[in-house]
What we know:
Blueprint: H1 2-10, H2 22-25, H3 27-42, H4 44-57, H5 59-71, H6 75-110, E1 114-116, H7 122-130, E2 136-149, E3 154-162, H8 166-171, H9 180-187, E4 190-191, E5 194-199, H10 201-204, E6 211-216, E7 219-228, E8 241-245, H11 246-250, E9 261-265, H12 269-273, E10 281-283, H13 284-292, H14 295-325, H15 327-339, H16 347-377, H17 383-387, H18 399-423, H19 429-435
Parallel strand pairs: 3-8, 5-7
Antiparallel strand pairs: 1-9, 1-10, 2-3, 2-6, 2-9, 4-5, 5-8, 6-7
Amino acid sequence: VAALVSLRGRGLLQNRTGGIDPLLALAPLLLAIAVTLIVIRVYPYPVRAVGTVAQRTWGALGLLGAVRARSAIATLPLLALTLGAALAVSGTLLVDTVRDGQDEASWQRVGAEARVDSELDQAQEDALRATPGVDAVSGTFARGSVGLDFGTAGTTLTVIAVDSSYAAVVDSLPGSPSTASLRQLADNPTTGDAISILLDPATAQQLLGDDIAMYYGPEYVPIHVIGTTTVAPTGYVTGPFAYIDIDAIAKLMPDDFAAKTFLVSGAGADEAVSALPDDDVLTRSEWIDGRRGLALVAGVERTMLFAVVAVGLLAIVALVATVVSGARARGRALSLLRTLGMSPRLGWWLALAELAPLVLAAVLGGIAAGIAVVLVLAPSLGLDVLAGGTSIPAASFSPAVIIGLVVAALVLLLLGTVADVLVHRRDKLSEVLRVGETV
Length: 439
């Protein structure tokens, strides 16, 4: 509890110490162990309930299987299996969370499928728009530290001059806010003698009226506020933001005024910008490859995957130990069944009755613990450093991870059952009973 509270309150990455607090670093493991302890306490009850039903409906095999399942409550194997499953689930989900966060961050850092940071002539613009698969191309010009004059007060912000295609580019971004006000700006670039402007909601709250002015470069420009927008390209430009029409402001500038940044959306964006100089172009695929190629990001991801493999081996060892520890008792029970005329080939039933509840409890407990680790601790693990976005990535709960764990558990259960059958295949009735001290 202390580790969880500290980690949620302070985060894993510390600014006041020389390293990482060991207590905080152990929080995921401690949470997994805590859930495992709960599983150990709860485990006997469903096993007994199933055993009660089995011994009444499935004859001698049901009775014997129920007895073996009840007596097979091994704390250490269950602890190892559950802990291994929990760390495997949490590690894989954290890797998925970082990768999903990198994909989201690429939209934030690039602003579209591709971004060109240079001036383009009309022929180059036309070539971009004519490329198959390109949905929209928008030319913009961002000027920072623009002063807004409210009359009695003022503020500075980044004013982005956009064209009529900017709203279409923003619409292509996943989870993008409403672009209705941007389209209104495209339809009404000026209001009388003033240039129409969109402000962010926080700045708009400071206004006493809609008619204000701004110091844009060398010009004192009258502007008229026609609305607000929450569109904020914070991944590559510093806010707060305001938007004006690029053609409207160009008419007031004494020098040539042209777009310096071009955003390209659509599946054909990479091909469209391929003919431009590499230094001027940034695509989402390039950004993701570069991010995942960083030593820190690749090293942490590799460590997480190695940890998943390591705990998988731990689970295998725990299951093998369980099979070996119960081999003599199962052999004795199987030999006694043979004296009653039952087939020795039914030994797989005893192994399955003993191992299945253990593996099932470990899988359920591991899934619960792994999801709890990601849900509770992911916001405090500094995953935004690995993702590279402007915010902490949302926790990812991929069904493929859960399905993979279940399939792996079934394979382990099958291998354990087969191994036990092979061990007892050559058992001799008299030797087993004598060794088992039953005669």
